[in-house]
Amino acid sequence: MKRSCCWIGKQALGILLLLATLWLQGCGNDSAVSQENDFKLQSEETAASQNGQIDIESSKTVQSSLEQVSDMDKTSSKANIKTNSRTTSSRQQTLSSVGSKLTVTSSEASAQNHKKSMEILFIGDSNVEVGNITTPIKDKLDAEYGYTGSGYTSLNEDFFTPKRNGVRVVNDIHWMKYDMVTYQKRLSPPFDAAQGLWVSSDTKDAVTIADFRGTSVDIYYLAQPNGGSFAIEIDNKQREIVNTSATSRCSKKVTIDGLSEQELHRMRLIVKEGSVSLQGFDAKNNAVRGVIHSWGNSSAATKDFLAVEESVMRTGLTELNPSIVVLMIGTNDHVVDRLPAEHFKNNLITMISRVKQALPESKILVCSTVQTDTPEAKTLLKEYVARAFPEAAQETGCAYFDLSSFFGSYRKSLMMDAYHPNEAGGEKIADELWNQIQKLK
Questions:
Q1: Quick check: helix, strand or coil at residue 1?
Q2: What confidence score (pLDDT) does residue 113 get?
Q3: In this structure, are residues 89 and 23 in contact, taking their beta carbons and an 8 Å threshold?
Q4: φ, ψ for residue 216 (rounded to 5)?
Q5: DSSP three-state, residue 258
Q6: Closest alpha carbon to 163 in 213, 108, 236, 203
Q7: Closest CA to 367 of 289, 316, 435
Q8: Whole-number pLDDT of residue 105
Q9: Residue 387: exposed, middle, or buried by beta-carbon count in 10 A (0-12, 13-18, 19+)?
Q10: Are 424 and 313 in contact (CB under 8 A)?
Q11: Which of 296, 347, 422, 431 is most buried, judged by most C-beta within 10 A?
């Protein structure tokens, strides 16, 4: 009996070892495919350099900056935000490793057809751009919908919200990168994008590269009087030439579809003539979508978004057409601008009104901001939370989430600095924010 049991045990062990071997071979195949794709991208970059389309040394510098997150004039606290945000990279590395596997099977697609899309636009400051709050919500959307696209991503490579599923942006040296506000400097209007981040060039053959996965992609740009033109190449094939000339300034998009679902695509946007301003792109992978669109801009306050001309903001919103808009702003209003509560409330109402006029069918959620470790938190922010945020939401008929009271007083364990939740703090907020968003469906 003992020998029989031992024999059965050995047989079972043999079967387990066989299964383990087969599993490891499968992983090896995935790794081989990944290495092949990486080599393909590197080869394409080299070829592009040889054709004079992009400076490789600039590309290498830019690729490094995507990891180290250098950001033009964004010094002092904004530079600290970028450095600190990279200390929470464990989630991003995990997501990057599994991103290529987030394809939608036919059975998943069939199930999704019974769902409504949930495209959530976040408008706000660094607490949106850093991504510690929005990334966990994106995780929840991916769990429910599968991978259905990138969501709006700025074509300014300095935009540092974590990029996933192969997304990467590189601007060559011939593009000027613009940000309507940094920690020490505000640009004068007009701004060429509703988010306040964009790139412009009037140099023929200037190239911006964007890598993405999806079956189609929307490219957002500024249409303007005497605007130039740019070519769209995807996977080394020219798809369209876009004329950006228009009678007035507004945001527009062009859609390229018919792309392979499984492939990591490389898009090149190439200036053909005149001046071109590029705003962002949105890769799509299914008609029914669950995505985050990020219009986060670190150092931005309400007055900065209000400085975006109405036509550019309105058309940016209508072209994107999200089902839900989350306003998460106020940190720089109380810490940097020290804006009186009544003035902040009026600014917030104007922002909400512009969104409602552009998107009458979309749901809007107003959020108060987190408690900062500053003297202003005990005075101005206290007034914002008591009156400005809730009254602005009530007077405009919007939903309101008192994020500040939910998150509680400043705690080092949940903050990466004096102003921004760390990964743990972001997940705590995201869990409750997700519940609030569900109420809007």
A1: coil
A2: 52
A3: no
A4: -155, 165
A5: coil
A6: 213
A7: 435
A8: 45
A9: middle
A10: no
A11: 296
The contacts found for 428-435 with CB under 8 angstroms, 24 or more apart, are 429/133, 429/370, 429/403, 430/133, 430/134, 430/135, 430/136, 430/137, 430/140, 431/136, 432/401, 432/403, 432/406, 433/133, 433/137, 433/326, 433/367, 433/401, 433/403, 434/136, 434/137, 434/140
The Cβ of residue 258 has, within 10 Å, a number of other Cβ atoms equal to: 8
Residue whose tokens read 């991916």: 142
> To which residue do tokens 């931005």 refer?
300
What does the alpha-carbon distance between residue 364 and residue 189 come to, in Å, rounded to a whole number? 26
Q: Please name the residue that has the structure tokens 């387990």.
A: 16
Contacting residues for 247 by C-beta, under 8 A, at least 6 apart: 225
Helix (H, G, I), strand (E, B) or coil at 104: coil
DSSP string for 269-298: EEEEESBEEEEEEEEE--SS-EEEEEEE-T
Measured between its terminal Cα atoms, the distance across the chain in Å is 63
Task: Give the type of residue at 217.
Answer: V
Contact 289, 148 (CB under 8 A): yes
Residues 6+ apart with CB under 8 A from 187: 178, 179, 180, 181
> What is the identity of the amino acid at 416?
M
Quote the DSSP letter at residue 52: T
- The residue count of the chain comes to 441
What phi-psi label fits residue 118: left (phi over 0), alpha (psi between -120 and 50 degrees) or beta? Answer: beta
pLDDT at 214: 96
Alpha carbon distance 289, 145 (integer Å): 7
C-alpha distance from residue 88 to each of 135, 294, 421, 423 (Å): 11, 19, 11, 6
Cβ–Cβ under 8 Å, residues 214 and 283: yes
Q: What tens digit of pLDDT does each residue of 52-71 get?
A: 343 333 333 333 333 333 33
Give the position of tokens 């991103």.
99
Contact 267, 209 (CB under 8 A): yes
- All residue ranges of the chain with pLDDT < 70 are 1-114
